[in-house]
Amino acid sequence: MSKRGYIPLDCYPCLFEQVSSLAKITGIGGEKGKELFEHAMRRLLDTRGKGIVVQHVVRSATDKAIALSGRGDGYDPYGDIKRQSNDAAMRFAGAFDKKLRESPDPLQYGVKIAAAGNIIDFGAKKHGSLDVEKELRTLDDREFGRFDFAAFADRLRAASSLLYICDNAGEIVFDKLFIEAMQRYNPAVEITCAVREAPVINDVVFADAHAVGLDEVAAVISSGSIYPGTLLDETSDEFRRLYERADLIVSKGQGNLETLLDEADERLFFILRIKCDQMARLSGVEKGALVLMQGGERG
Fold this sequence. Notes:
Elements: H1 11-26, H2 30-47, H3 54-69, H4 79-102, H5 106-116, H6 132-137, E1 144-147, H7 149-158, E2 161-165, H8 171-185, E3 190-195, H9 206-211, E4 219-222, H10 237-245, E5 248-252, H11 254-260, E6 268-273, H12 277-283, E7 290-294
Parallel strand pairs: 1-7, 2-3, 2-5, 3-4, 5-6
Antiparallel strand pairs: 6-7
Helix pairs in contact: 1-2, 1-3, 2-3, 4-5, 4-8, 5-8
């Protein structure tokens, strides 16, 4: 668990937006919709947001929404949206791959498209408010608020093993391009991608990774996480072994930043776009900016 172990007040509105999105996507309305909201509120009221993190509430609300929908345990509420996000990103992949290969610094450009692609996040955006194709057309316009590139490149150059913790569907198309750029930079590095164990928001599970061919460029495993983040003590033994042994760890997205930042591990590099005030405070980077941030002790 994140060492913070509490849910800040600023996260409450976002949580309720996510519950609202779940209700709309699963077609839950009326009394069932109210039951879903009451379920989420009860988790917060019973704990007063202490001893849990946002990821626990999102998982609990997702399970409740699936149960109320009556569609069975295998139902992925965001399945159609994830397929649409992957399809949209793949339409742009060729153009970005060409730019990456022609760039004077392909690794640096790879970091940028991996970070900018993190905008495809239905956990941080109100349902219906995210225009994926519009965001993809403006990826090149994004700027970094923090860019620990020299440290990252040095670590990658020396690394034998790299663990890449994935975040969202759509975004993984650009992760794939970035992974290929890292392999060209260091052909000896062995890269393993970790995805979620079970569907939650638009986070990547194995089926999503396979759909875009991520498993064609790197090994893909489940982290064992059923949350929109990586709570290390609730991941699989296999994942923790890879985490402990990796020379370099790339953590994508806000949920992974929120749950791994307190690990204070210099092998960790967080790549994302800052999408809310709480993450801006945690990272020290203004909202809207891109981030490549090395982990480690903070003052």
